[in-house]
Amino acid sequence: MEGENVSSPSTFVLLGFSEHPWLEIPLFGVVLVSYILTLIGNSSIILLSLVDPRLQTPMYFFLDNLSVLDLCVTCTIVPQLLANLWGPEKTIASWGCITQAYLFHWTGCTECALLAVMAFDRYVAICRPLRYTLIMHPRVCGQMAAAAWSSGLANSLLQATLTLQLHLCGHRTLDHFFCEVPVLIKLACSDTTANDLSLAVGAIPFALVAPLLVLISYAFIARAVLKLPSAEGRYKALSTCSSHLVVVIMYFGPAIYVYLQPPANSTQAKFMSFFYCVITPLLNPLIYTLRNKDVKRAWKRILQSWGGMKS
Fold first, then answer.
1. pTM for the complete prediction?
2. Fewest CB atoms within 10 Å of the CB: 221, 243, 251, 252?
3. Within the chain, where are the H helices?
Protein backbone atom coordinates (compact mmCIF):
# COMPACT_ATOMS: atom_id res chain seq x y z
CA MET A 1 0.00 0.00 0.00
CA GLU A 2 2.96 2.32 0.41
CA GLY A 3 3.22 2.66 -3.37
CA GLU A 4 -0.48 3.42 -3.86
CA ASN A 5 -1.47 7.05 -4.40
CA VAL A 6 -4.76 8.74 -3.68
CA SER A 7 -6.11 8.17 -7.21
CA SER A 8 -5.45 4.40 -7.13
CA PRO A 9 -8.23 2.90 -4.90
CA SER A 10 -11.47 1.90 -6.58
CA THR A 11 -13.56 3.23 -3.67
CA PHE A 12 -13.30 5.46 -0.61
CA VAL A 13 -15.34 5.31 2.60
CA LEU A 14 -17.10 8.54 3.62
CA LEU A 15 -17.87 8.54 7.35
CA GLY A 16 -20.16 11.56 6.94
CA PHE A 17 -22.33 12.04 10.03
CA SER A 18 -22.10 8.39 11.11
CA GLU A 19 -20.93 9.42 14.60
CA HIS A 20 -24.48 10.76 15.05
CA PRO A 21 -26.61 8.04 13.35
CA TRP A 22 -29.85 9.47 14.74
CA LEU A 23 -29.20 12.60 12.67
CA GLU A 24 -28.95 10.86 9.32
CA ILE A 25 -32.65 10.44 8.48
CA PRO A 26 -33.61 14.01 9.54
CA LEU A 27 -30.62 15.32 7.59
CA PHE A 28 -31.72 13.29 4.58
CA GLY A 29 -35.08 15.08 4.63
CA VAL A 30 -33.47 18.51 4.99
CA VAL A 31 -30.95 17.82 2.23
CA LEU A 32 -33.56 16.42 -0.17
CA VAL A 33 -35.89 19.41 0.22
CA SER A 34 -32.94 21.83 -0.04
CA TYR A 35 -31.68 20.02 -3.14
CA ILE A 36 -35.01 20.32 -4.95
CA LEU A 37 -35.48 23.98 -4.00
CA THR A 38 -31.88 24.80 -4.96
CA LEU A 39 -32.31 23.30 -8.41
CA ILE A 40 -35.60 25.15 -8.92
CA GLY A 41 -34.38 28.48 -7.50
CA ASN A 42 -31.08 28.75 -9.34
CA SER A 43 -32.45 27.39 -12.63
CA SER A 44 -35.35 29.86 -12.50
CA ILE A 45 -33.01 32.82 -12.02
CA ILE A 46 -30.96 31.76 -15.06
CA LEU A 47 -34.06 31.24 -17.21
CA LEU A 48 -35.65 34.47 -15.96
CA SER A 49 -32.65 36.58 -16.96
CA LEU A 50 -32.58 34.91 -20.39
CA VAL A 51 -36.24 35.56 -21.24
CA ASP A 52 -36.65 39.03 -19.69
CA PRO A 53 -34.68 41.79 -21.52
CA ARG A 54 -34.89 44.06 -18.46
CA LEU A 55 -32.71 41.60 -16.52
CA GLN A 56 -30.00 41.39 -19.19
CA THR A 57 -27.65 43.71 -17.32
CA PRO A 58 -24.15 43.19 -15.87
CA MET A 59 -25.50 42.58 -12.36
CA TYR A 60 -27.79 39.77 -13.52
CA PHE A 61 -25.10 38.38 -15.82
CA PHE A 62 -22.88 37.88 -12.77
CA LEU A 63 -25.86 36.56 -10.79
CA ASP A 64 -26.36 33.95 -13.53
CA ASN A 65 -22.74 32.91 -13.07
CA LEU A 66 -23.31 32.62 -9.32
CA SER A 67 -26.35 30.43 -9.93
CA VAL A 68 -24.35 28.18 -12.26
CA LEU A 69 -21.71 27.82 -9.53
CA ASP A 70 -24.37 26.90 -6.97
CA LEU A 71 -25.82 24.30 -9.33
CA CYS A 72 -22.36 22.81 -9.93
CA VAL A 73 -21.69 22.49 -6.20
CA THR A 74 -25.13 21.05 -5.51
CA CYS A 75 -25.08 18.48 -8.33
CA THR A 76 -21.52 17.42 -7.44
CA ILE A 77 -21.93 16.94 -3.68
CA VAL A 78 -25.58 16.43 -2.78
CA PRO A 79 -26.58 13.25 -4.72
CA GLN A 80 -23.75 11.28 -3.09
CA LEU A 81 -24.61 12.80 0.30
CA LEU A 82 -28.24 11.70 -0.08
CA ALA A 83 -27.17 8.15 -1.00
CA ASN A 84 -24.87 7.93 2.04
CA LEU A 85 -27.47 9.35 4.44
CA TRP A 86 -30.22 7.00 3.27
CA GLY A 87 -28.48 3.64 3.06
CA PRO A 88 -25.89 1.68 5.02
CA GLU A 89 -23.37 1.99 2.19
CA LYS A 90 -21.00 4.92 2.83
CA THR A 91 -18.65 4.48 -0.11
CA ILE A 92 -17.84 6.64 -3.13
CA ALA A 93 -16.17 5.50 -6.33
CA SER A 94 -12.65 6.76 -6.97
CA TRP A 95 -13.71 8.71 -10.07
CA GLY A 96 -16.54 10.32 -8.08
CA CYS A 97 -14.17 11.30 -5.29
CA ILE A 98 -11.69 12.84 -7.73
CA THR A 99 -14.51 14.70 -9.50
CA GLN A 100 -15.73 16.14 -6.20
CA ALA A 101 -12.22 17.23 -5.22
CA TYR A 102 -11.65 19.08 -8.50
CA LEU A 103 -15.09 20.64 -8.86
CA PHE A 104 -15.54 21.73 -5.25
CA HIS A 105 -12.16 23.46 -5.20
CA TRP A 106 -12.86 25.03 -8.60
CA THR A 107 -16.30 26.36 -7.69
CA GLY A 108 -15.20 27.55 -4.23
CA CYS A 109 -12.31 29.60 -5.62
CA THR A 110 -14.39 30.90 -8.52
CA GLU A 111 -17.18 32.07 -6.19
CA CYS A 112 -14.68 34.06 -4.10
CA ALA A 113 -13.42 35.81 -7.24
CA LEU A 114 -16.93 36.31 -8.61
CA LEU A 115 -18.17 37.95 -5.40
CA ALA A 116 -15.27 40.42 -5.67
CA VAL A 117 -16.21 41.14 -9.31
CA MET A 118 -19.86 41.68 -8.29
CA ALA A 119 -18.72 44.12 -5.59
CA PHE A 120 -16.77 46.06 -8.25
CA ASP A 121 -19.91 46.13 -10.41
CA ARG A 122 -21.88 47.67 -7.53
CA TYR A 123 -19.06 50.17 -6.92
CA VAL A 124 -19.19 51.37 -10.53
CA ALA A 125 -23.00 51.52 -10.49
CA ILE A 126 -23.08 53.75 -7.39
CA CYS A 127 -19.80 55.68 -7.54
CA ARG A 128 -19.46 56.05 -11.33
CA PRO A 129 -23.08 55.95 -12.59
CA LEU A 130 -22.48 58.14 -15.66
CA ARG A 131 -19.70 55.84 -16.89
CA TYR A 132 -21.37 52.59 -15.87
CA THR A 133 -22.37 51.43 -19.35
CA LEU A 134 -18.92 52.29 -20.69
CA ILE A 135 -16.96 50.55 -17.91
CA MET A 136 -19.25 47.54 -17.50
CA HIS A 137 -19.47 46.78 -21.22
CA PRO A 138 -20.76 43.27 -22.00
CA ARG A 139 -17.36 42.29 -23.38
CA VAL A 140 -15.65 43.50 -20.19
CA CYS A 141 -18.17 41.61 -18.05
CA GLY A 142 -17.48 38.46 -20.04
CA GLN A 143 -13.75 38.90 -19.56
CA MET A 144 -14.10 39.39 -15.80
CA ALA A 145 -16.34 36.33 -15.48
CA ALA A 146 -13.89 34.30 -17.58
CA ALA A 147 -11.03 35.47 -15.35
CA ALA A 148 -12.92 34.34 -12.24
CA TRP A 149 -13.70 30.91 -13.68
CA SER A 150 -10.25 30.34 -15.17
CA SER A 151 -8.38 31.44 -12.02
CA GLY A 152 -10.48 29.05 -9.94
CA LEU A 153 -9.87 26.26 -12.45
CA ALA A 154 -6.11 26.86 -12.49
CA ASN A 155 -5.89 26.70 -8.69
CA SER A 156 -8.10 23.61 -8.59
CA LEU A 157 -6.00 21.78 -11.18
CA LEU A 158 -2.83 22.60 -9.24
CA GLN A 159 -4.07 21.70 -5.73
CA ALA A 160 -6.13 18.62 -6.59
CA THR A 161 -3.49 17.18 -8.94
CA LEU A 162 -0.76 17.59 -6.32
CA THR A 163 -3.03 15.92 -3.76
CA LEU A 164 -3.78 12.94 -5.99
CA GLN A 165 -0.05 12.19 -6.24
CA LEU A 166 0.27 11.61 -2.49
CA HIS A 167 0.85 8.07 -1.20
CA LEU A 168 -1.78 6.45 1.01
CA CYS A 169 -1.04 5.15 4.47
CA GLY A 170 -3.23 2.11 3.86
CA HIS A 171 -6.72 3.27 4.82
CA ARG A 172 -9.29 4.77 2.48
CA THR A 173 -11.60 6.32 5.07
CA LEU A 174 -12.45 10.03 4.89
CA ASP A 175 -13.89 11.68 7.99
CA HIS A 176 -16.20 13.83 5.86
CA PHE A 177 -19.35 13.59 3.74
CA PHE A 178 -17.57 14.43 0.46
CA CYS A 179 -14.07 14.48 -1.01
CA GLU A 180 -12.17 17.73 -0.73
CA VAL A 181 -8.47 18.48 -0.97
CA PRO A 182 -7.61 19.11 2.74
CA VAL A 183 -9.36 15.87 3.78
CA LEU A 184 -7.59 13.85 1.08
CA ILE A 185 -4.25 15.25 2.21
CA LYS A 186 -4.86 13.70 5.63
CA LEU A 187 -4.80 10.24 4.01
CA ALA A 188 -1.15 10.61 3.06
CA CYS A 189 1.66 8.86 4.87
CA SER A 190 4.31 10.81 2.95
CA ASP A 191 5.48 14.35 3.69
CA THR A 192 2.69 16.84 2.91
CA THR A 193 4.62 20.05 3.61
CA ALA A 194 4.66 21.01 -0.07
CA ASN A 195 0.93 20.35 -0.39
CA ASP A 196 0.09 22.39 2.70
CA LEU A 197 2.29 25.25 1.50
CA SER A 198 0.78 25.15 -1.99
CA LEU A 199 -2.72 25.13 -0.51
CA ALA A 200 -1.95 28.14 1.71
CA VAL A 201 -0.32 30.16 -1.09
CA GLY A 202 -3.05 29.26 -3.56
CA ALA A 203 -5.70 30.45 -1.10
CA ILE A 204 -4.25 33.97 -0.85
CA PRO A 205 -5.95 35.42 -3.98
CA PHE A 206 -9.31 33.89 -3.09
CA ALA A 207 -9.49 33.84 0.72
CA LEU A 208 -7.59 37.08 1.41
CA VAL A 209 -7.38 39.31 -1.69
CA ALA A 210 -10.99 38.76 -2.82
CA PRO A 211 -12.56 39.68 0.58
CA LEU A 212 -10.20 42.66 0.78
CA LEU A 213 -11.36 43.89 -2.64
CA VAL A 214 -14.98 43.51 -1.48
CA LEU A 215 -14.24 45.57 1.64
CA ILE A 216 -12.51 48.29 -0.39
CA SER A 217 -15.40 48.44 -2.87
CA TYR A 218 -17.98 48.79 -0.11
CA ALA A 219 -15.87 51.39 1.68
CA PHE A 220 -16.03 53.56 -1.45
CA ILE A 221 -19.74 52.77 -1.83
CA ALA A 222 -20.45 53.79 1.79
CA ARG A 223 -18.55 57.06 1.34
CA ALA A 224 -20.47 57.84 -1.87
CA VAL A 225 -23.83 56.99 -0.30
CA LEU A 226 -23.20 59.18 2.74
CA LYS A 227 -22.57 62.15 0.42
CA LEU A 228 -25.99 61.84 -1.22
CA PRO A 229 -28.25 64.74 -0.18
CA SER A 230 -31.56 62.88 0.16
CA ALA A 231 -32.53 59.95 2.33
CA GLU A 232 -34.45 58.47 -0.62
CA GLY A 233 -31.31 58.56 -2.76
CA ARG A 234 -29.29 56.85 -0.04
CA TYR A 235 -31.94 54.15 0.37
CA LYS A 236 -32.13 53.53 -3.39
CA ALA A 237 -28.33 53.28 -3.66
CA LEU A 238 -28.09 50.86 -0.75
CA SER A 239 -30.96 48.72 -2.04
CA THR A 240 -29.06 48.06 -5.27
CA CYS A 241 -26.29 46.27 -3.38
CA SER A 242 -28.07 44.94 -0.28
CA SER A 243 -28.65 41.44 -1.71
CA HIS A 244 -25.03 41.09 -2.76
CA LEU A 245 -23.83 42.34 0.62
CA VAL A 246 -25.94 39.72 2.42
CA VAL A 247 -24.50 36.95 0.20
CA VAL A 248 -20.95 38.22 0.79
CA ILE A 249 -21.39 38.21 4.57
CA MET A 250 -23.01 34.77 4.44
CA TYR A 251 -20.17 33.35 2.31
CA PHE A 252 -17.04 35.00 3.73
CA GLY A 253 -18.21 35.37 7.35
CA PRO A 254 -18.11 31.68 8.34
CA ALA A 255 -14.94 31.18 6.28
CA ILE A 256 -13.12 33.95 8.15
CA TYR A 257 -14.38 32.54 11.46
CA VAL A 258 -13.04 29.09 10.61
CA TYR A 259 -9.73 30.57 9.40
CA LEU A 260 -9.18 32.60 12.57
CA GLN A 261 -10.55 29.92 14.91
CA PRO A 262 -10.29 26.42 13.38
CA PRO A 263 -13.10 24.03 14.41
CA ALA A 264 -12.34 22.13 17.60
CA ASN A 265 -13.60 18.86 16.12
CA SER A 266 -14.41 17.24 12.79
CA THR A 267 -18.17 17.42 13.39
CA GLN A 268 -18.08 21.21 13.58
CA ALA A 269 -15.98 21.33 10.40
CA LYS A 270 -18.45 19.04 8.63
CA PHE A 271 -21.42 21.21 9.58
CA MET A 272 -19.58 24.28 8.29
CA SER A 273 -19.03 22.47 4.98
CA PHE A 274 -22.69 21.38 5.07
CA PHE A 275 -23.67 25.05 5.26
CA TYR A 276 -21.60 25.90 2.16
CA CYS A 277 -22.64 22.86 0.10
CA VAL A 278 -26.34 22.65 0.96
CA ILE A 279 -27.64 25.81 2.64
CA THR A 280 -25.78 28.58 0.77
CA PRO A 281 -26.83 27.42 -2.75
CA LEU A 282 -30.42 27.36 -1.45
CA LEU A 283 -30.31 30.81 0.17
CA ASN A 284 -28.58 32.70 -2.66
CA PRO A 285 -31.55 32.64 -5.09
CA LEU A 286 -33.99 33.29 -2.23
CA ILE A 287 -32.05 36.38 -1.15
CA TYR A 288 -31.92 37.80 -4.67
CA THR A 289 -35.57 36.93 -5.33
CA LEU A 290 -37.09 38.18 -2.07
CA ARG A 291 -35.01 41.36 -1.81
CA ASN A 292 -34.97 42.37 -5.48
CA LYS A 293 -37.84 44.34 -7.01
CA ASP A 294 -36.66 43.75 -10.60
CA VAL A 295 -36.84 39.97 -10.15
CA LYS A 296 -40.27 40.23 -8.53
CA ARG A 297 -41.55 42.36 -11.42
CA ALA A 298 -40.10 39.92 -13.95
CA TRP A 299 -41.85 37.01 -12.24
CA LYS A 300 -45.10 38.99 -12.18
CA ARG A 301 -44.86 39.76 -15.91
CA ILE A 302 -44.16 36.10 -16.78
CA LEU A 303 -47.00 34.81 -14.57
CA GLN A 304 -49.38 37.37 -16.09
CA SER A 305 -48.36 36.40 -19.61
CA TRP A 306 -48.87 32.70 -18.79
CA GLY A 307 -52.26 33.53 -17.28
CA GLY A 308 -53.22 35.43 -20.44
CA MET A 309 -52.19 32.54 -22.66
CA LYS A 310 -54.27 30.05 -20.62
CA SER A 311 -57.34 32.28 -20.68
1. 0.90
2. 252
3. 24-51, 58-86, 94-127, 132-135, 138-164, 181-185, 193-203, 210-226, 231-239, 242-260, 266-274, 280-290, 293-310
